[in-house]
């Protein structure tokens, strides 16, 4: 179950270079698989996220899951979130001698943080505005990030509601 595909990152603000390369697509799919589920659990709560994932696997898909996937900002939030983590991982490469930065012949390495932070903060804007009807989605827990640093009974507010500065902090 993937809401995004590697081709979701072909163009736009969350563009990933050389997306037609099979190796890039495989690497990106690993991040999509990991970070989509993580984001859904942080945004929707574990119970609703699990229902949503299971609902998308059904045939036919129930309309409320199609609406959640296609009629909200969910895909855009996911793109920003996955882009942030994928780009963060690409800053260095792991070699046999440790972490190294790539060196190209006709270019200079530049910081990825401005694009990463921009993408993250775009996602935060959308998560703070995100809301679902508890009539249609009874397991949805609205986060009270505006007033508290915890949701309920000791559960900390997830990082997806907090902006990062230009240093990625």
Q: How does this model look, in words?
A:
With about 170 residues, this protein is mostly helical. The chain contains 5 helices and 2 strands; from the N terminus they run H-H-H-H-E-E-H. A two-stranded antiparallel ribbon has the order 1-2. Strand 1 and strand 2 form a beta hairpin. Helix 4 packs antiparallel against helix 5. The radius of gyration is 18 Å and the shape is globular. The two termini are about 30 Å apart. The model has no long low-confidence stretch (mean pLDDT about 85).
Structural class, by secondary structure, is mainly alpha
| Beta-strand share of residues | under 5%
Mean pLDDT: 85
Instruction: Order the strands across the largest sheet as they lie in space.
Output: 1-2
In percent, how helical is the residue content? 40-55%
Total helical elements = 5
What features would you highlight for this structure?
mainly alpha, two-stranded antiparallel ribbon, single chain, 4% strand, 46% helix, 2 strands, 169 residues
Care to give the gist of this entry?
With 169 residues, this protein is mainly alpha-helical.
List the helices and strands and how they pair.
Layout: H1 22-44, H2 46-57, H3 63-70, H4 74-90, E1 93-95, E2 98-100, H5 113-129
Antiparallel strand pairs: 1-2
């Amino acid at each position: 179950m993937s809401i995004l595909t590697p081709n979701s990152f072909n163009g736009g603000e969350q563009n990933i270079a050389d997306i037609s390369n099979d190796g890039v697509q495989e690497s990106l799919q690993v991040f999509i698989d990991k970070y989509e589920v993580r984001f859904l659990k942080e945004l929707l709560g574990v119970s609703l996220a699990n229902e949503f994932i299971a609902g998308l696997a059904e045939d036919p898909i129930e309309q409320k899951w199609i609406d959640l996937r296609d009629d909200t900002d969910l895909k855009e939030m996911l793109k920003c979130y996955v882009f942030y983590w994928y780009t963060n991982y690409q800053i260095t490469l792991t070699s046999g001698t440790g972490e190294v930065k790539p060196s190209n012949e006709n270019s200079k390495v530049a910081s990825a943080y401005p694009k990463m932070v921009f993408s993250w903060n775009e996602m935060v804007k959308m998560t703070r505005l995100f809301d679902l009807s508890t009539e249609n989605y009874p397991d949805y827990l609205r986060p009270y990030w505006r007033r508290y640093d915890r949701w309920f009974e000791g559960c900390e507010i997830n990082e997806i509601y907090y902006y990062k500065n230009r240093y990625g902090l």
